[in-house]
Amino acid sequence: IYYNNEVEINEIINFLESENKDKKENENEKIKKELENLKEILIKNNMFLENDNIKNKEKNIKISKIIKNSNKGKNKKIITIAGTGGVGKSIITINLSNTLKNKNKKISIIDFDILNNSLHTILGVNKYPQKIKNKLQKNDLIQNKLNIKELIIKINKKVDLISGINLLFDSKYKISSEKVKFILEELKEYYDYIIIDTSSECFFDYTKNIINNSDNVLFLLEGNLIEIKKAKKLLEMYEENWNIKKEKINLIINKYNEESIDDNIIKNIFSEYKILGKIKFNKKYNILINKNLKTKSINNDIKNEYEKITNKIIKLKKRNINLIIENIYNKFRFNLYQKNKI
Q1: How far, in Å, CA of 34 to CA of 28, rounded?
Q2: What distance in Å separates the CA atoms of residue 35 and residue 13, rounded to the nearest whole number?
Q3: Contact between residue 79 and residue 105 where contact means Cβ atoms under 8 Å apart
Q4: Which of 62, 159, 203, 215 is disulfide-compatible with 318, CB 3.0–4.6 A?
């Protein structure tokens, strides 16, 4: 009451002080005293109110900042490239990054295939920079504080590569889910898209952690009976053992040619999944790998298909959950992690 009516109470007190002397003085004094007591009580209560308001205001400012920061990242995406062995995950990873680069996006490619990491070879990185070599020799990132930025290799103005990721694993190829989460959260600060090339080995827990922490999964398959069977088994394992939602997984038919199973049949077999497109087989893929010519060696039809698929990827929705709450939570955990790195 006092908070909204401070002026009115003061006016009443002043009025009583200057009131007609004919009125009983003791009556005026009594009322005046009661009003003074009321004012004192209200002031005291209001101090608590103001303190609470200040605290709440500070909390609201902090929450607003977090929400604002989380909204900055809402258009950023973590995309995992998955599929069976030899299906073309590494080539797709690089070609998608090149297509996104041409759309003025900042991209980080992470080679999380610790058994057969090949992205640095395809991208023409013949030697690790000396600082990464030193880390490799000392196995420094396991023993000391994790700084993922130390593994970044600049490919061009828009694309960075993180290879040598095996540094973050122990001797049994294990990495904590927390470490995976915070690697991705840290990189999300600097890139529009994080594209992850994974191992086809389905018994590594870290692959599960990566997929669970991704916004979208691009699952590659080939149009022949053997590869379709293998793809179905792997997708079933994702859903039944790893609890990966089908909505998160998008299919790409790779190495498609005139001998492949008709794409309408493939669409019918995988009707529960969204198929983003098909990429034709190109004999020049070997040149791409051996000569490091990137997309210059790929014909226009395939470039156009990559363009279509990339546009669909950009339009893909993130995981179907409350993104603001999730980003606030991740931001909070990330800040906690920065103070005491795993």
Answers
A1: 10
A2: 7
A3: no
A4: 215
With cut-offs at 50, 70 and 90, classify the pLDDT of residue 334.
low
What gap in Å lies between CA 270 and CA 273, rounded to an integer?
A: 6
The listed CATH number (3.40.50.300, 3.30.565.10, 3.90.226.10, 3.30.70.240) that belongs to domain 76-339 = 3.40.50.300
Q: Which residues contact 224 (CB under 8 A, 6 or more apart)?
A: 260, 261
Q: What is the pLDDT of residues 156-165, one digit of tens each?
A: 999 999 876 6
The CA-CA-CA angle for residues 155, 156, 162, to 5°, reads: 30
% the chain with pLDDT above 70: 59
Amino acid at 141: L
Q: Which residue has the higher pLDDT, 233 or 132?
A: 233
The helix-helix angle for 177-188 and 205-212 (nearest 10°) equals: 40
Task: Using DSSP, state whether 271 is helix, strand or coil.
Answer: coil
Q: What is the pTM of this model?
A: 0.68
Residue 323 clears pLDDT 50, i.e. is over it: no
